[in-house]
Amino acid sequence: RKERRALQPLDKIAERKPPAPDAEVLPLNPALRQTFAAKQAHDTEIRPSTKSSAESTLLAPSNELGDDSGSSRSSPSSDENPKSTDGTSELVGDSTVLKTPSKPKPSSKDAQSEYNKERGSAKPLLNLVVIGHVDAGKSTLMGHLLYRLGCVQKKLMHKYEQDSKKLGKASFMYAWVLDETSEERNRGITMDIAQAKFETPGRSIVLLDAPGHKDFIPNMITGAAQADVAILVVDATRGEFETGFEAGGQTREHTLLVRSLGVSQLAVVINKLDNVGWDKNRYEEITTKLRAFLKQAGFRESGFTFVPCSGLTGENLVEPSSEEALHSWYNGPYLVQVIDSFKPPERPVAKPFRLCVSDVFKGTGSGPCVSGRIEAGAVTNGDKVLLMPAAEQGTVKGVMVNEMPTQQAFAGDQVALTLSGVDVMNVTVGSFLCDPAVPIRVTSKFQARIVVFNVEIPITRGFPVVLHYQSMSEQASVHKLISQLHKTTGEVVRNKPRCLTKNSSGVVEIKVSRPICVELYNEFKELGRVTLRSGGSTIAAGVITAIT
């Protein structure tokens, strides 16, 4: 990990300003690195080298932060913001080329038809993030689920069992499926986003296991920004649920964060219910509190489902529970059934290509490799892409989706791309790859409509914050307070307020320490959301309304 970070120009950024205290780098799945390295080595061989009222207004259907169900404005045509693509011959002179010929770049209409043709009969893809308070059992739950679904070999699981016993951590054996680093295993907590893939009868799932510890909230935000749906895990043990749910716990903050980032479908796992003897009263006590909170946070009643489970024993994960103490009063769905019922979002395939870089590394070839989720549009092997804000044009030399090489990838896909014509030192976490004909906007100031959470200190002009946007975090400040809005109607109640207090909403101007890539919410709702943090806590979230 140290070697990878050295390849990124984070040192240069540090010279210009103090690093963002909340900034963290999303690690790439180690298996993906190995696959890329093996592929590039092979290619080189065969070819010659050349609880507040703020919570109650958060993302309600017509409130300050926008309606997820609303349609976005049609994407701009390729005639707008034209950009010359001369100099192509200089960009394609890379020594490593793919064996398969490149397809011509499709138009927006063609991209949609290609998507329908290629994915029409396939299982819908869902990016799922797992959230919750530290030690709620997230990694154990999902590790056991992956094992029960046949995604982990028995021989490897046996090794995890033996190794965890040697360290006196036998109960962590399933968590080790996702917690791969020695530090995570020794400390018994998830520190980085872990990725895995599995399938249900009707869905293809990319799993993002997020850290629950408060110190690693920036990594959690990075994972949540790539998610379509979420699983919230709470610990049913007496005292443990209360610790995570009350003020200072991560159950509330994680839930508010995923909602502010656009997630509207949630599976709520009441984990470790076996610790209280599958007590129905305890289950109902927890679900009653959570139901009220989730509605206040902006989730519709139809958008969340409660599931009693045990991540350690595997009860109610992939089949109905045989535990009589649970079966006697619960006849609802098991976890896989809930995941299978999630509705896939509509993918903005016809919009201009946008990908936010979540990791960058240098492969065995001459060009860098980048990974991230395609937020809009499509990318094809051989496409010209524009790296922003560096304004450097390059060529896509390889496309991989879920560690498998392919010719084309679409909005919603978790991809890794090999590039030529791009200097690896110009690629950072938070950079964007985009369509050269319709580049993403770059600015250091923008206006946002925000909801302020339960803050202790009012937000005033010049208030310092850490801005979280997609995979990026940057030092910023609230440069101007433009207006205060009514909490329910959204109408302006005061222009140029002196401050925004807890549970209020308003329009502000954000000034970032350096130019960043952003989009307007009404044009790219996938890229129009921001989160503000200060002092290790999330203080506000909102949508970008104007770029200044």
UniProtKB/TrEMBL annotation:
Biased composition (Low complexity): 68-79
Major site of localization recorded for this protein: cytoplasm
Statement: the UniProt record of this protein carries the keyword Phosphoprotein: yes
Domain Tr-type G: 123-349
Location(s), subcellular: Cytoplasm
Residue stretches of biased makeup (Basic and acidic residues): 107-119
One Gene Ontology term of the molecular function aspect: translation elongation factor activity
Top-rank taxon, per record: Eukaryota
Record's keyword terms, sorted: Cytoplasm, Elongation factor, GTP-binding, Hydrolase, Nucleotide-binding, Phosphoprotein, Protein biosynthesis
Compositionally biased spans, kind Polar residues: 49-60
Swiss-Prot/TrEMBL catalytic activity: GTP + H2O = GDP + phosphate + H(+)
Listed GO CC annotations: cytoplasm
PROSITE patterns reported for this sequence: G_TR_2
Residue numbers spanned by region Disordered: 1-119
Family: Belongs to the TRAFAC class translation factor GTPase superfamily. Classic translation factor GTPase family. EF-Tu/EF-1A subfamily.
Name of the protein this chain belongs to: Putative elongation factor 1 alpha
Native source species: Ornithodoros turicata
